[in-house]
Design the sequence.
């Protein structure tokens, strides 16, 4: 029995993965990854690193990628709610420069697979959010790249009421636009 279903997004390789949640009076149980189940669905992913972050309301993390050793990321929210975004940076892709966003929350248990070749980031919509990243390659600080979160040429429609109140790392405030991002 496979506890996962896949929803294709408009961008090739970018997947929303739904998992079955088994709940009762004690709480719930759910699988967040199973090699056999993923292989049955045609997802041959191998992960080498798992990361977790905690952020407060209004935090925007990203948009990040690795230049020469791109990472695939299987991401999920274990506490709270975020708006998660991926931007296609694959130069030979018909959807180069296009973005897709999904809301991930602890209550729905969805996973978002961001394949290598995409910039990735998220915006926290709840008081606090815990975010988990399973990565297909190791993080290499010297290889890190980024795309400006509000680059007009990409046009991401973030669910942000007041952009002056966005909490963002200093290094992410001055990232380049799409024309200067290469993978």
Sequence:
């Amino acid at each position: 029995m496979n506890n996962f279903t896949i929803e294709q997004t408009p961008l090739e390789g970018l997947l929303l993965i739904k998992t079955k949640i088994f709940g009762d009076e004690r709480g719930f149980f759910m699988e967040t990854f199973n090699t056999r189940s993923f292989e049955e669905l045609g997802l041959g992913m191998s992960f080498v690193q798992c990361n977790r972050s905690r952020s407060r309301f209004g935090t925007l993390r990203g948009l990040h990628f690795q230049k020469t050793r791109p990472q695939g990321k299987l991401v999920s929210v274990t506490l709270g709610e975020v708006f998660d975004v991926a931007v296609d940076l694959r130069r030979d892709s018909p959807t180069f420069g296009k973005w897709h966003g999904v809301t991930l929350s602890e209550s729905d248990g969805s996973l978002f697979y961001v394949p290598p070749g995409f910039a990735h980031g998220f915006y926290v919509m709840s008081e606090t959010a815990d975010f988990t990243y399973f990565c297909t390659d190791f993080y290499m600080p010297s290889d890190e790249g980024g795309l400006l979160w509000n680059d007009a040429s990409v046009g991401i429609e973030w669910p942000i009421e007041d952009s002056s109140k966005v909490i963002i790392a200093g290094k992410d405030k001055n990232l380049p636009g799409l024309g200067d991002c290469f993978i």
